[in-house]
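A reminder from the course coordinator: this example appears on the midterm review sheet, so study it carefully.

Given structure:
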């Protein structure tokens, strides 16, 4: 299996195109992985043999678009020994692969797998298993990661500024810190997708993992990458990044955190390099919170010194910038109570409405609401934002409104005030009879007049209850808002409105991807009583077959079954048993028929009743134990 040279392109010097036999071999490898193996030993031998083939052609194979994907899948299930050998073969080409569009994904997967295997080896040591053999592999993996980290240090800015290299650098920082962040931590849900291999690796035990612990690595390896951040204070910079003074006579500066950079501005303004700094802040926030807060304060001072305008916070420009605002979001998330209070008073107070209505700055306000540390501070933020709630709704900035609702639940404050403002924003506050229609308005994000097709002359019309189905669309943010409202201390206004919805609208809600989670909140909320739940769920009787055969509705039915009394289970089972054969023939419904043991219900009713009664008793006992 030879290699065929291809025409070189800038940045691809030294790379080769694989010939047909090699591509065919890895295609068969991919098929074998898809089919799976009967025994783990067979799979391990297969992976060992394939990675043996890779070792002599790491550069060529890792940079091939089709083979690189297969290598990621192999690395996701390989052993510590095979991973160590692969990393050793990869090490001479680490810089080239890290900045290649395909190779970077393979490198990232290898690093993530090293974190998982290192964590498993730690567990084995804690349990006294495989201490001799496992410990050796653990040290070998750790040594390789440290060597790769040392190599990155010299070209830190090159990696940080490269589209693909920055992903590798961010992964390396997490490995050094012993904290592999989840996709929710590393990116916003409305932005880019997770890297290809990230979801394939089991998560690292971030709270206990110490095979490459930050006590050793962040104080050593991360200082090697960034400079001494724990012992030294940071310097304030002028607009050109030059040192203009130091804190308490210390000789160090924030420039130590950005090696080989005349100014840290690149980590604030560059869309590729800035996420590297954000990841570093989040990792340090979990492992070295004091150092992280010191660094955050220094960055805020640096940003404040760049653009100072009369009567306006110097951070306003950065809050409205796409890249800098994301950095400020990360700072808000890891800032302590003292720094948060200072940020609010100096840069946000009096400007929250303007920022909440801005297409970029509103995301930072969302992070501010989520990170508010105290009820007193939240009340101040709420009082400033709440009068403009309808304007935010008109702008489509529903993230602000859902975060307000979530913060009301978290701090147990301002709940009645928010519900009143929502009534006003959705035009169902007056007449009072309209309030019973609030739930469909919330989940669809439509005002009363639009939802019911009324004209301007009908703004004071009383609400007329009807069983006509009107709910045509369900909004993700509307569903999320309703879920938060169901966790309020007084959820009765929302539960009464849900109970008053036409049966068709309730079924539509239960069978919707976003709307089905409203029923999750209804069934799990600690403030919703059993009586209130029964009032809402009563409308679904007679429609259980439709729920059972729907992808999202069947999940709602499972939830209802799990919390139902024996009498309610008998009602559900009796309704479904009448169409048992149809249910078994449905690709989704047959799961419900199995979970509910409908065959036993029909043929062995007494045994079925005894089993369900025992299940209910056991569940109640566990619930009481958890409460204690």
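Designed residues:
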């Amino acid at each position: 299996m030879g290699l065929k040279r291809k025409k070189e392109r800038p940045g691809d010097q030294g790379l080769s195109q694989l010939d047909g036999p090699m591509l065919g071999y890895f295609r068969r490898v991919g098929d074998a992985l898809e089919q799976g193996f009967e025994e783990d030993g067979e799979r391990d031998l297969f992976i060992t043999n394939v990675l043996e083939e890779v070792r002599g052609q790491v550069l060529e194979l890792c940079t091939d678009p089709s083979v690189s994907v297969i290598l990621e899948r192999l690395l996701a299930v390989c052993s510590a020994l095979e991973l160590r050998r692969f990393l050793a073969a990869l090490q001479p080409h680490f810089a080239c692969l890290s900045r290649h569009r395909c190779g970077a994904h393979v490198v990232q997967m290898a690093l993530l797998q090293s974190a998982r295997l290192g964590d498993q080896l730690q567990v084995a040591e804690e349990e006294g298993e495989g201490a001799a053999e496992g410990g050796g592999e653990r040290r070998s993996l750790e040594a390789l990661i440290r060597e790769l980290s040392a190599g990155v240090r010299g070209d830190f800015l090159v990696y940080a500024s490269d589209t693909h290299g920055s992903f590798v650098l961010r992964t390396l920082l997490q490995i050094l810190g012993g904290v592999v962040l989840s996709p929710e931590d590393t990116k916003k849900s409305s932005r880019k997708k997770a890297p290809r291999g990230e979801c394939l690796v089991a998560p690292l035990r971030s709270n206990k993992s110490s095979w490459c612990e930050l006590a050793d690595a962040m104080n050593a390896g991360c200082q090697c990458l960034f400079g001494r951040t724990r012992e030294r204070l940071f310097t304030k910079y002028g607009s050109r990044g030059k040192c203009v003074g130091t804190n308490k006579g210390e000789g160090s500066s924030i420039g130590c955190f950005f090696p080989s950079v005349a100014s840290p501005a690149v980590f604030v303004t560059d869309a590729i390099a800035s996420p590297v700094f954000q990841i570093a802040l989040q990792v340090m926030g979990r492992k070295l919170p004091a150092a992280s807060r010191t660094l955050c304060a220094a960055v805020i001072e640096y940003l404040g010194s760049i653009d100072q305008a009369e009567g306006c916070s110097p951070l306003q420009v950065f809050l409205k910038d796409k890249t800098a605002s994301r950095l400020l979001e990360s700072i808000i998330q890891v800032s302590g109570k003292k720094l948060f209070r200072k940020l609010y008073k100096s840069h946000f107070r009096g400007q929250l409405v303007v920022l909440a209505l801005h297409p970029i700055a509103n995301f930072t306000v969302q992070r501010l609401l989520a990170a508010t540390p105290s009820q007193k501070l939240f009340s101040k933020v709420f009082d400033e934002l709440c009068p403009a709630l309808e304007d935010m709704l008109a702008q489509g900035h529903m993230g602000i409104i859902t975060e307000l609702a979530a913060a009301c639940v978290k701090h147990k404050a301002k709940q009645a005030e928010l519900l009143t403002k929502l009534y006003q924003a959705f035009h169902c506050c007056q007449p009072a009879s309209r309030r019973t229609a609030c739930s469909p308005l919330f989940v669809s994000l439509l005002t009363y007049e639009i939802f019911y097709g009324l004209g301007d002359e009908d703004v004071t019309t009383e609400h007329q209850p009807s069983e006509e189905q009107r709910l045509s669309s369900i909004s993700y943010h509307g569903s999320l808002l309703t879920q938060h409202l169901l966790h309020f201390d007084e959820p009765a206004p929302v539960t009464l409105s849900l109970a008053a919805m036409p049966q068709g609208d309730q079924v539509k809600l239960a069978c919707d991807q976003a709307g089905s989670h409203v029923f999750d909140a209804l069934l799990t909320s600690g403030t919703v009583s059993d009586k209130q739940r029964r009032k809402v769920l009563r409308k679904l009787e007679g429609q259980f077959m439709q729920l059972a055969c729907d992808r999202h509705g069947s999940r709602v039915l499972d939830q209802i079954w799990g919390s139902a009394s024996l009498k309610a289970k008998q009602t559900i089972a009796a309704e479904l048993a009448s169409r048992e054969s149809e249910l078994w023939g449905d690709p989704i419904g047959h799961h419900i028929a199995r979970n509910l043991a409908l065959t036993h219900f029909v043929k062995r009713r007494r045994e079925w009743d005894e089993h369900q009664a025992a299940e209910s008793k056991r569940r109640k006992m566990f619930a009481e134990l958890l409460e204690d």
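Residues 1-14, 123-139, 187-262 have pLDDT under 50 and may be disordered. The chain has 38 helices and four strands.
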